[in-house]
Description:
CATH architecture of the largest domain in chain A: 3-Layer(aba) Sandwich
Strand order of the largest sheet of chain B: 1-2-3-7-6
CATH topology of chain B: Rossmann fold
Shape of chain A: globular
CATH superfamily of chain B: Thiamin diphosphate (ThDP)-binding fold, Pyr/PP domains
Number of helices of chain A: 12
Number of domains of chain A: 2
CATH architecture of chain B: 3-Layer(aba) Sandwich
Helix content of chain A: 25-40%
CATH class of chain B: Alpha Beta
Number of domains of chain B: 1
CATH superfamily of the largest domain in chain A: Thiamin diphosphate (ThDP)-binding fold, Pyr/PP domains
Largest sheet of chain A: 7 strands, mixed
Radius of gyration of chain B: 18 Å
Shape of chain B: globular
Oligomer: heterodimer
Largest interface: A-B, 26 and 27 residues
Order of helices and strands of chain A: HEHEHEHHEHEHEEEHEEHEHEHH
Distance between the termini of chain A: 37 Å
Strand content of chain B: 5-15%
Strand order of the largest sheet of chain A: 2-1-3-4-6-5-10
Largest sheet of chain B: 5 strands, parallel
Number of helices of chain B: 11
Distance between the termini of chain B: 23 Å
CATH topology of the largest domain in chain A: Rossmann fold
Number of strands of chain A: 12
Amino acid sequence: MRxxxxxxxxxxxxxxxxxxxxxxxxxxxxxxxxxxxxPDRIFNxxxxxxxxxxxxxxxxxxxxxxxxxxxNNFLVYRAYEFIRNDACLQKRNIKFVxxxxxxxxxxxxxxxxxxxxxxALRVLPDLTLLSxxxxxxxxxxxxKAIQYEGPVYIRLGKAFEKEIYxxxxxxxxGKANTIKTGSDITxxxxxxxxxxxxxxxxxxxxxxxxxxxxxxxxxxxxxTEAVLNSAQKTKNVLTVEEHNIIGGLAGxxxxxxxGKVQLNSFGKMGFNDVFCNDYGWHQDLKKMYGLSSEDxxxxxxxxxxx
Amino acid sequence: xxxxYEKALDLRRKVIKTCYLGRGGHxxxxxxxxxxxxxxxxxxxxxxxxxxxxxxxxxxxxxxxGHAALGIYNVLCDAGFFKRENLxxxxxxxxxxxxxxxxxxxxxxxxxxxxxxxLSFGVGLALSAKMKKxxxxxxxxxxxxxxxxxxxxEAAMSISEFKLNNLIWIIDHNKWQAxxxxxxxxxxxxxxxxxxxxxxxxxxxxxxxYKQLINALSVDRNNLPEKPRVIxxxxxxxxxxxxxxxxxxxxxxxxxxxxxxxxxNELGLTEEEFEAL
Lengths: 306, 277
């Protein structure tokens, strides 16, 4: 996703002269071309996320469209009060792109993981929270985020994500996207773990379980209509996220369904209120913490067959 | 030009009246910064149009130490940004005037109160002016205790790195913070040496002396200073009201009725005159 994002922001800066790139020692890859081709519209704040966010909000006030790009962990956790007060409270037209959500930072370890960011950001009024599932979703998402007036946060993956869309992603802010239709269980998921969900759903299909897979690429505002309709149809719900099971997607979905739909089962998969304290590649970590496609398959079978 | 000392005395009285009506806000940190703001708005420093608060060519003023809201509200009110009857809804249900300012108020550019945000916001405003080749200036007042926030020094580094000589940073150096003396809480001195080390040009003044204030705050827009300017304004918390001046317990204390009487008297008003403000 990183490469796709960087190409997308480079292209957008060529199309829209209001777009300004802000980085915190995070300008590598295609950003080097931005520095070369649009030197007046890129600012490197050094390792100082707080200053970058507040300054970005001032640029937004003056009519620019600042796109802040930093490692997700430093941006959301370090600069949280700045995102809250300077961006959300004052509805500034600023875009945040956090690189490396979940545990995609793999061997960099727990200080570089973000398995609580959805919970932290979702509670901020007026913030639009987006989460791309695969590389092809990124440029569409960025373009829509820039067209949208107001603060937007994109929790980006990093590398080696499986592509789930054949052509262009149908992404629209506020719309969930049904990737696979089914009738026995609805799996709501977000981010690149959705590829594992799809594998699990296909395997479940081979033993006669029909799973619906819905990509929640807009975590906020949540497409409550799509969530309610699908849950009403299947009566079995599973949420899968590379995030703490507290406060994130599971929280958002259960808040929506509570008191509205009578379910037969509700499962939630994610980090079980723990930090990821292990090392390995992305897929290794997901396996260690019960988020592999096999784990998801087993959970589907457990919920439907008991 | 109007007598700025007279103007400031009038504003001090109105600060007390506003607090009296709303029973909120912070009197002493508002009074320490009041002469700086009076010089900016009534001393011919800031360009503004109170009937068109978002006038593109206005100078931008950020009160980073948002707890001096009582001060800026009264300054903006007398400058014509809103009516006094509106300001006198201060801290009451339905008002837009709370103990810390937000942009819902005409003339306020940014919500402040959480310390360490406003200088960085000023950095963004100054960058924008440079990008658009605009001549307006950006003035930011921070507190001195506020300089304990790490973000202040992130901002200071970037003012220098980005050569933002269109930004004038003023430190209201009243030597106190919420619960005690700055020097006894977390020392920030030597401020002027720190500023020099950060690549800024410090000017140390008496922040209650209008000659010094006007001189330090004046910037030639067509010939900006080479190094970004930071004005270290030595002030007194609660300036003008000896009863509360430089007293630890008064940071956010609301006077009781007897204490209000003492303060009103010290500001040279009878109770009837105070009522009529």
